[in-house]
Design goal:
The longest helix has 19 residues, at 289-307. Helix 2 (15-24) packs parallel to helix 4 (45-55). The protein is α+β, with helices and mostly antiparallel strands. The N and C termini lie far apart (61 Å). The protein is built from 20 helices and ten strands. InterPro entries: ARM-like, ARM-type_fold, PBS_lyase_HEAT. It holds the Pfam family HEAT_2. This is HEAT repeat domain-containing protein.
Length: 450
């Protein structure tokens, strides 16, 4: 059988060539694997991994050798993808790879067990053995595999926590990753609470990684903030932990429907402003930009009725989205939201995008200046001044460009959490509190920095 010809046909997307290579079994492995490791080959790498996976056990040892000797990260990635999904009847074959001298092989074997999910429970002792691995990637893979096993892994991990040894730290990470606070036993919960109290004392603010939305209110009355946002179950945390929880909730795609709206991080007063990070349930479960925008506006207006001023900001770490909403005394005075517009169907269409697609402005309603607020009384002689004119006046007054980023507006008008530092005056404590979506529900999974 001419394997080179079959590979040429496979490059041309001939499914019969794939079937022929799989039927050839062990005889085809070396040629297919050599092609997989050749980054210049015209054969799609994923077609080659599929062949090796279907051949099964005969691919195991050659893939181990190729992984250990991979000359580039790309070759290692390809071989690891094939290795993790081999069609073998007994997954115990991966045990030997967990003890291989190459960290790439050990990590790939842990990845293979991770894909088994709950069926990997018999391999828990092997995975826990990797908690002491010198390679951080291998330790992380072992934690992810334990997470995939789920609640069934908790008793074994708790046992590790009560025994001596270097595995204890990674076991704590695995427990938090599986079930958050609820996965910890009483001893660990007490230890974490004490550590939070020690680290919170005199904690210096540090910049927050911004991805999502947050509110800014000029108050140090945390009880009033909790009441207005409908938050319960408040628990003191460090500022570092609160920010880590917010980012975990927005980037952990395994948390499910209420992952981003179960809890909110409320800062201490920072230069007189309390920041509230998170997504309210009233916003999280809406569909459509207009409905979300209108709900945010209404909430900002409501907050400003109680606190005099309320700001809402939004930013993304993955694209150019940014937004803000400013309200005073129950009225939205300015709102900006940039939305990625769809490209024109006709590539020759050079027309400008519809302004309503990319920005939303509300009337600028002048207010009398007061401490901590930059808005001043605006006197306009005569009538007939357009909303656009008033909005542009606002931007000129505060040097806000038409497409300013939310962090710039926060710097000018309140507090920019992305630039927090030791010069910031801190009053009170940071807390995590539950929304209506999180109340009476299991704690949010995630290993958070304290």
């Amino acid at each position: 059988m001419n394997f080179d010809v079959l590979l040429e046909r496979l490059a041309a997307d001939d499914s019969t060539a794939e079937q022929a290579l799989v039927a050839a079994g062990a005889a085809a492995v070396d040629t297919v694997l050599q092609t997989l490791c050749d980054e210049s080959s015209p054969v799609p790498w994923y077609r080659l991994t599929t062949v090796l996976q279907q051949i099964g056990e005969a691919s195991f040892a050659p893939l181990v050798t190729a992984l250990a000797a991979a000359p580039t990260a790309e070759v290692a990635r390809r071989c690891g993808a094939a290795f993790a999904d081999l069609d073998v009847p007994d997954k115990a074959i991966y045990r030997s790879a967990l003890r291989h001298h190459s960290p790439a092989v050990r990590a790939a074997a842990a990845n293979a067990l991770q894909r088994l999910k709950a069926r990997a429970e018999p391999f828990l002792p092997d995975l826990i053995g990797l908690f002491e691995d010198p390679a951080s990637d291998v330790r992380q893979r072992a934690v992810w595999a334990c997470e995939a096993i789920g609640a069934a892994a908790i008793p074994a991990l708790r046992a590790v926590r009560r025994a001596p040894g270097r595995r204890r730290r990674t076991a704590l990470t695995a427990l938090a990753t599986i079930g958050g606070w609820d996965a910890l036993d009483a001893t660990d919960q007490h230890a974490v609470t004490r550590l939070i109290e020690v680290k919170a004392a005199g904690e210096t603010p540090v910049p927050v990684h911004l991805c999502g939305s947050w509110y800014a209110i000029p108050t140090s009355d945390q009880s009033a903030v909790l009441d207005t946002f409908g938050l319960t179950g408040a628990r003191p945390v460090t500022m570092r932990l609160g920010a880590a929880a917010w980012n975990n909730d927005h980037h952990n795609w395994s948390l499910g429907e209420h992952g981003s709206c179960s809890r909110m991080y409320v800062t201490p007063a920072l230069n007189g402003w309390t920041l509230i990070f998170g997504t309210l349930p009233a916003v999280a479960h809406l569909r459509g930009e207009v409905a979300i925008r209108d709900t945010v506006r209404a909430h900002c207006a409501e907050l400003s009725s109680r606190f005099g001023v309320a700001h809402w900001y939004g930013a993304s770490c993955g694209d150019g989205w940014t937004a803000w909403c400013l309200a005073e005394d129950g009225t939205v005075i300015d709102h900006y939201d940039i939305v990625e517009s769809e490209p024109p169907d006709d590539e020759d269409d050079q027309s400008e995008p519809d302004e309503s697609v990319i920005r939303y402005y509300d009337d600028f309603v002048p207010r009398t200046a007061r401490p901590g607020v930059l808005h001043e009384q605006l006197s306009i002689d005569g009538f007939g001044v357009s909303a656009a004119d008033r909005s542009q006046w606002a931007r000129r007054r505060y040097n806000i460009p038409d497409h300013a980023h939310a962090t710039d507006v926060a710097t000018w008008l309140s507090v920019n959490p992305g630039t927090l530092g030791p010069d910031c005056t801190v009053t009170g404590r940071a807390i995590l509190a539950l929304t209506s979506c999180g109340a009476n529900q299991p704690s949010t999974p995630g290993a958070l920095a304290i």
